Amino acid sequence: MNSGIYIIENKINGHRYVGSSVELKRRWNDHRSSLRKGQHHNAHLQSAWNKYGKDAFKFDILEHWEPEFLTSMEQWWMNMLQPEYNMAPVSGNTRGIKLGPPSKEHRAKLSKAHTGKKLSDEHKANMSAARKGKRYLFGYKHTTKTKARIGASQRGKKKSKEHRANISAAQIGHNRWTPEARARYSAARMGHEVSEETRAKTSATLKDKPWSPARRAAQEARANMPAAHRGRPWSADRRARHEARCSS
Asked: What angle do CA 81, 96, 89 make, to 5 degrees?
C-alpha cells in the first residue's frame, strides 16, 4: 500500500509537518523539489528549510491507510501531534490558515508593483458597483481589548512632513460638505443626545490642552467683539456669504 500519513521533522528543533498522500514516495520528492527551488506552498516549512538546510529534515511514514481514510486520519495525527509547520488547523481545508505578517521585502515588492498604477475607468466602475449599497462595519463595535491595541499602536505616532503635505494637497479644492451631505448629517444628528460619560471623556481630553494659534486668535477676536454684537443672529445676506465661502 502506497497511501498513508507522513511526517516531515526538523531534527534540530523537533518541529514537524504532517500530511497525507496516495503516493508517499512521490509526495516526499515533490516536497523536496519545491523546497530546493524556494517555491513551497507552506511558508513556515520553506523558511525553516532555508534556515537549517536540507540535512536538518527527515521524512517518515506514520502509518498506511486506504485513500478514503486519509483526510480523517491526517486530522487525527494533527490533533495528536500539533505540528508546528502546518499552516491550516483542519486537514484538507484552508479555513483558519495561519499567515504571518508580510516581510519587509514582501511589502517593498507590493509597494513597487502598485506605485504609479492607475485603475481603468471600467475597473473603477466595477468597484463602485460592487460596493454600492454596502455599509461596511455599520453597527460594529470593537472590543475594549481591540480599542486598547489600536490606541497603543497610534499613540505618539507622528506624520512626516511629506505625509502631511500629501494630505493637504489632496484636500485642496475638495468640498465634501455638499448640500446633500449637510442634509444627511443634520438628519442623522437630529435628536441625538451626548451621554454624560462622553461629555466627561471629551472634557478630560480637552482639559489643559494648549490652543492652536488660530483658535487662540479666534477666541481673542470674540472677546474683543463689542457686547452689542455678541450672540447677535446673522442676517440672511451674511449667512449666504459665509456658506458661499465654505462651499468654494
From this structure: 15
Task: List Cβ neighbours of 194 (8 Å cut-off, separation of 6 or more).
Answer: 202
Euclidean distance between the first and final Cα of the chain, in Å? 79
Residue 109 grid coordinates: 515588492
Write down the H helix ranges in the chain.
24-37, 43-52, 70-81, 104-114, 121-131, 144-154, 161-171, 179-189, 196-206, 213-223, 236-247
Q: How many CB atoms lie within 10 A of CB 32?
A: 16
Nearest to 9 by CA among 68, 49, 66: 49
Cell of 148: 486598547
- Label residue 58 by pLDDT band (50, 70, 90): very high
CA distances from 164 to 48, 134, 161, 214 (A): 41, 30, 5, 18
pLDDT tens for each residue of 161-191: 888 888 888 878 777 778 888 888 888 888 8
Paired with 16 in beta bridges are 9
Backbone angles phi, psi at 66, to 5 degrees: -65, 150
Question: Which pLDDT band, with edges at 50, 70 and 90, does 24 fall under?
Answer: very high
Give the separation between CA 81 and CA 163, rounded to whole angstroms.
49
**Domains defined along the chain, listed by start:** 4-81 (3.40.1440.10)
Mean pLDDT computed over 123-128: 76
